[in-house]
Design brief:
Elements: H1 19-84, H2 97-123, H3 126-147, H4 157-186
Helix pairs in contact: 1-2, 1-4, 2-3, 3-4
Length: 187
């Protein structure tokens, strides 16, 4: 009669290991594999979250910067209009061609800001969207008051620019807080 032994039950010295010990060692191996798998999943999830936060931070930074560039461009053209029209109250028909061109460029910059504002509405926090809307409202009011040149006098451009500067500074402050918060969350 041939006697066979199970290899898993035998140690190097040839003695048989108790069955409970073999089962316990097998369970420890399975538990180790599960723990390793769980740690790997957690690590992958955390890496994905970190990369996602960095991507959102970058997208927000780009959108906020584009919005500010467009608004600042419009303010620049309004500044030129204010300098050219200082002390005078001409109608738009009497304005020099360069002032009419400045208005057209300011309006084009406002249109660009409008397009970027839609992106901000999709990716920004509520406080930033509110600040961007407030800034755009002041910009739109300035454009509308400038359109009245054709029927009336040149509006007080300096006061409109001051209102734009205040709204722009509010937007910058809120956007900085948002970017700082998202950057800290990503670390």
């Amino acid at each position: 009669m041939v006697h066979t032994t199970i290899l898993a039950d035998t140690n190097a010295a040839g003695t048989t290991l108790p069955t409970w010990l073999v089962i316990l060692l097998g369970l420890a191996g399975v538990i180790g594999i599960l723990i390793g798998f769980g740690l790997n999943l957690t690590n992958d999830y955390l890496r994905y979250r970190r990369e996602d936060l960095v991507r959102w931070h970058s997208n927000r930074l780009d959108a906020y910067g584009s919005y500010l560039n467009s608004v600042t461009d419009a303010i620049y053209w309004f500044d030129i209009i204010a300098e050219e029209g200082a002390g005078a109250s001409p109608s738009r028909a009497q304005l020099p061609q360069s002032m009419a061109q400045c208005f057209d460029r300011a309006e084009a910059a406002a249109d660009q800001a409008k397009q970027v504002r839609f992106s901000i509405a999709l990716i920004a926090t509520e406080s930033v969207v509110h600040a961007a809307d407030g800034l755009f409202s002041v910009l739109r009011e300035t454009i509308d008051s400038m359109r009245e040149w054709q029927t009336g006098e040149l509006p007080n451009v300096a006061s409109r620019i001051a209102a734009l500067d205040t709204a722009r500074n509010t937007f910058i402050e809120v956007a900085r807080r948002d970017l700082h918060r998202s950057k800290v969350a990503g670390l």
